[in-house]
UniProtKB/TrEMBL annotation:
Gene3D superfamilies: Jelly Rolls. It comes from the Bacteria. Residues 9-141 form the DUF985 domain. InterPro entries: Cupin_DUF985, RmlC-like_jellyroll, RmlC_Cupin_sf, YML079W-like. This is DUF985 domain-containing protein.
């Protein structure tokens, strides 16, 4: 395992976090027993998610809203590229005097990723998806395809691909 802060190692062990295809570490914590009528889709799913300085969440898109809840660690930047090309950066954390927020929703169909603000430490969050997450709805992007579509955001695209 890469060089990780001790607390990040403890969280990975305690919650049995696994490497996520988009980057970071995760463990599913909840999958509702109820599903959408007539569809094989749970109403809600939730995960623990841990990001480190060298293990970012690369740009991806899903077909559901995703709610982010900050638990502890370093400030996490959630980067979103909306369909109109606008880039939004949300600071997820607990220092509200610095305009950080402990909760944020990424709308369905938005390209997004996340990384630590200072590239050091770790951030431990939960993410809830409604309707529930399904890997069929997960789309991971390459650097080349995003640079063609959004050349104005080269710096962050290079970081999160």
């Amino acid at each position: 395992m890469e060089h990780l802060p001790q607390r990040a190692k403890e969280l990975i062990e305690k919650f049995q976090l696994l490497s996520h295809p988009e980057g970071g570490f995760y463990a599913e914590t909840y999958r509702s027993s109820d599903s959408i009528p007539g569809k094989n889709r749970q109403l809600l799913t939730s995960i623990y998610f841990l990001i480190t300085g060298t293990n970012t969440s690369n740009f991806h898109r899903i077909k559901s809203d995703e709610c982010w809840y900050f638990h502890e660690g370093s400030t996490l930047l959630v980067q979103s590229i909306f369909p109109n090309g606008e880039l939004q950066t949300i600071e997820l954390g607990m220092d509200i005097s610095k305009k950080e927020v402990p909760f944020h929703v990424v709308p369905a169909g938005t390209i997004f990723g996340s990384h630590l603000k200072d590239d050091e430490g770790y951030a431990f969050v939960s993410c809830a998806v409604a309707p529930g997450f399904d890997f069929q709805d997960f789309e991971l992007f390459s650097r080349d395809e995003l640079l063609v579509a959004y050349p104005a955001h080269q710096s962050i695209i290079t970081k999160l691909t």
